[in-house]
Amino acid sequence: MAPIPTPPAEPQDSPDGYVGLDAAHAERLARQRGWPTVRSLPPGAIITMEYRAGRLNFEVRDGRVARAWKG
């Protein structure tokens, strides 16, 4: 039987720290801090609910991060 894979470690910063930042700046900052996947979404976007380790999601309104969460 194959071993269960270990998910990669996520950066140790809080998604709340990105709220209010310019979306482009927030994405650059997140990648610099080690997030391999950063996803920017418009308000009300229909998305799948699967959790992906190492992914940071941004809800972007008027060019600024309104909400941020892991997965």
Describe this structure in words.
- The chain has 71 residues and is an alpha+beta fold.
- It is built from one helix and three strands, in the order αβββ.
- The protein has one helix spanning 23-32; strands at residues 37-41, 55-61, 64-70.
- The longest helix has 10 residues, at 23-32.
- The chain starts with 22 loop residues before the first helix and ends with a strand.
Key traits:
71 residues, 3-stranded mixed sheet, 3 strands, 27% strand, Proteinase inhibitor I78, Prot_inh_I78
C-alpha termini separation: 28 Å
Structural class: alpha+beta
Average predicted confidence as pLDDT: 93
Number of H- or I-type helical stretches: 1
**In what range is the share of β-strand residues?**
25-35%
- Major sheet characteristics: 3 strands, mixed
- SSE succession: HEEE
Unreliable stretches (pLDDT < 50, length at least 5) are none
Strand order of the largest sheet: 1-2-3
Protein name: Proteinase inhibitor I78
Organism: Streptomyces capoamus
InterPro entries: Prot_inh_I78
Pfam family, one: Inhibitor_I78
List strands and helices in order, with pairings.
Elements: H1 23-32, E1 37-41, E2 55-61, E3 64-70
Parallel strand pairs: 1-2
Antiparallel strand pairs: 2-3
InterPro entries: Prot_inh_I78 (IPR021719)
Protein name: Proteinase inhibitor I78
Organism: Streptomyces capoamus
Brief account:
The chain is of the alpha+beta class and 71 residues long. It has one helix spanning 23-32; strands spanning 37-41, 55-61, 64-70. This is Proteinase inhibitor I78.
